[in-house]
């Protein structure tokens, strides 16, 4: 027997863009539409075609997308008070969008009828009924094919209106049903309802309108949008509206990235086509990237920290049974478990990290010493949970047969201001590579840049692929600001090549030293993670390195 079906209605492209700091171009909206189609969402609300040129262009261009799952919906309000639908520009814009689905919003609350519309209760019921009927009766034409629109009625402020005057709120739904609405969506527009109120009210509406599909549209102003949506489904709603990553006005809308796995994995509902749930994390992160928004690390199911484990006792239990500290298998939603290393770590944390980089537990001879080193360094200001490459470097160094790609002997950095030239930075470093010593000098636009340039100048002849490494991010954090300029500084460096990105950390009362520690670890990790190096040799063959260096010096 198939699981009960819930139809997902995504309104990221309209409600989501009402969130502060979010703006999507037409191309952005088309990309997100394509992603949601691949995920298997049933409806995508493209925007309000009567409100701005961007949405008009979207509805024109979206017709050319080869969509498989998605039905595109145009959104708009009922016709104006005192007007007829056929004379209303908003109604005409909805028809001209030529979408298979139209969502029309109307007032359910007497407060809004009196104070916002400034209409009589009877006039509000008329415009609801006639607007829905007009959209339902007018056929659309797409690629010379005639179609009848599916009309969804959004009952705005329904739960607040129902609390104040349940008879009138029900009358607005009756007006929409009388006009031919296919689905009634009950909206908690102000986001203040509690889940038990939602469930009770949806049951009462279902009893009054048997056989009419019901939906839920919840906002998150009290932090319960997801819970309220699930409560509505428990009460019989089969249509759920929300946005990717919970984007939306004020506190946002119901987060589909939390709702979908809860519906499927916790409630046994079918929200996506079979096999699509595993794409959820990837789509959530892709939408965040398109919207230029950082994905909340602790976001349920899809966040980078959603299955991150830090406590030593927890990790030890996880190594015996992954279900001990995870409510689901992360792979079900396309995520993965992560083991963090910090001063809270135990033996299991390091063993897990070692396994990640292909080091067998029996190969780590100095595991207790590495663990104590990490705890000591964290006490000094290092933080390893965001710098996993530094942990892996420490583990590699603990192996008796590990030969580092280079060894720092000395460095000096000079920063000065010269007349006619301005600020000037120069770094001098001395490093050992194999049995050869390099002494190089380089300039930069700052001390860290100069150190990086000098290190590259020394190593690139031996490790040509170092030229593919780019410094992607550099963060500085002052740990004890009450010490003023003598405070300890923590530096985090992100480095990347064409296929990978990794993070390292350094800490010191001297910002240059902290930067060098993080930079040297980043380069060492990048060179050591080469496939040939992880099999026991350097990228150029560590035992022949001296001869190669001598040959290149001779060149």
Task: Tell me the layout of helices and strands.
Layout: E1 7-10, H1 26-39, E2 43-47, H2 53-61, E3 71-77, H3 89-96, E4 101-107, H4 110-117, H5 121-137, E5 140-142, E6 145-147, E7 150-156, H6 158-164, H7 166-179, E8 183-188, H8 195-208, E9 214-218, H9 225-234, E10 239-242, H10 256-266, H11 280-290, E11 308-309, H12 312-320, E12 338-339, H13 347-356, H14 367-380, H15 388-397, E13 407-418, E14 422-433, E15 436-444, H16 447-459, E16 470-478, E17 489-496, E18 501-508, H17 511-528, H18 531-534, H19 545-554
Parallel strand pairs: 1-2, 1-10, 2-3, 3-4, 4-7, 7-8, 8-9, 9-10, 11-12
Antiparallel strand pairs: 5-6, 13-14, 14-15, 16-17, 17-18
Helix pairs in contact: 1-2, 1-11, 5-7, 6-7, 8-9, 12-13, 15-17, 16-17
Beta-strand content: 15-25%
Class inferred from helices and paired strands: alpha/beta
Q: Oligomer, anyone?
A: single chain
Main beta sheet, described?
8 strands, parallel, barrel
Poorly predicted tracts of residues: 530-555
Helix content: 25-40%
Radius of gyration: 30 Å
Return the average pLDDT rounded to an integer: 85
Measure the end-to-end span.
Answer: 75 Å
């Amino acid at each position: 027997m198939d699981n009960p079906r819930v139809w997902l209605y995504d309104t990221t492209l309209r409600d989501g863009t009402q969130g502060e700091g979010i703006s999507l171009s037409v191309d952005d909206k088309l990309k997100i539409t394509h992603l949601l189609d691949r995920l298997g969402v049933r409806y995508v609300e493209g925007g309000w075609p009567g409100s701005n040129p961007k949405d008009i262009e979207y509805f024109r261009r979206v017709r050319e997308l080869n969509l498989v799952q998605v039905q595109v919906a145009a959104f708009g309000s009922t016709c104006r008070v005192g007007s007829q639908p056929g004379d209303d520009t908003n109604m005409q814009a909805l028809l001209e969008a030529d979408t298979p689905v139209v969502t029309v919003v109307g007032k359910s609350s007497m407060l809004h009828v009196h104070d916002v519309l400034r209409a009589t209760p009877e006039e509000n019921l008329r415009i609801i009924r006639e607007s829905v009927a007009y959209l339902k009766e007018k056929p659309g034409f797409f690629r010379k094919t005639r179609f009848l629109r599916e009309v969804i009625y959004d009952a705005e402020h329904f739960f607040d209106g129902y609390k104040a005057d349940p008879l009138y709120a029900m009358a607005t739904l009756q007006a929409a049903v009388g006009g031919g609405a296919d689905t009634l969506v009950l909206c908690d527009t102000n986001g203040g309802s509690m889940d038990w109120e939602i469930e009770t009210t949806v049951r009462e509406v279902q009893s009054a309108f048997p056989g009419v599909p019901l939906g839920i549209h919840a906002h998150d102003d009290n932090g319960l949008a997801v819970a309220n949506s699930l409560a509505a489904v428990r009460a019989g709603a089969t249509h759920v509206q929300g946005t990717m990553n919970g984007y939306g006005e004020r506190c946002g809308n119901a987060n589909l990235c939390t709702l979908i796995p809860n519906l499927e994995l916790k409630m046994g509902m079918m929200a996506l086509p079979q096999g699509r749930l595993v794409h959820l994390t990837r789509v959530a992160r892709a939408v965040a990237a398109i919207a230029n928004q950082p994905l909340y690390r602790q976001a349920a199911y899809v966040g980078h920290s959603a299955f991150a484990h830090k406590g030593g006792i927890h990790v030890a239990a996880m190594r015996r049974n992954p279900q001990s500290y995870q409510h689901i298998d992360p792979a079900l939603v396309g995520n993965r478990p992560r083991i963090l290393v910090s001063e809270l770590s135990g033996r299991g944390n390091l063993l897990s990290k070692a396994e990640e980089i292909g080091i067998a537990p029996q190969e780590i001879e100095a595991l207790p010493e590495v663990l104590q080193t990490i705890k000591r360094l964290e006490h000094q200001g290092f933080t390893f949970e965001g710098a996993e490459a530094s942990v892996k470097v420490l583990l590699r160094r603990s192996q008796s047969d590990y030969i580092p790609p280079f060894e720092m002997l000395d460095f000096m950095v000079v920063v000065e201001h010269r007349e006619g030239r301005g600020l000037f930075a120069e770094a001098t470093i001395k490093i050992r590579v194999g049995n050869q010593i390099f002494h190089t000098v380089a300039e930069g636009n700052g001390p860290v840049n100069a150190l990086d340039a000098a290190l590259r100048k020394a190593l690139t002849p031996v490790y040509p692929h170092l030229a593919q490494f780019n410094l992607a991010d550099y963060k500085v954090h002052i740990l004890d600001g009450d010490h003023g300029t003598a405070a300890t500084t923590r530096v985090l460096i992100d480095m990347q090549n064409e296929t990978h990105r990794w993070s390292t950390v350094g800490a010191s009362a001297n910002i240059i030293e902290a930067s060098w520690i993080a930079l040297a670890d980043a380069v060492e990790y990048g060179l050591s993670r080469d496939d040939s190096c992880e099999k026991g040799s350097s990228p150029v063959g560590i035992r022949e390195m001296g001869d190669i260096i001598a040959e290149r010096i001779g060149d």
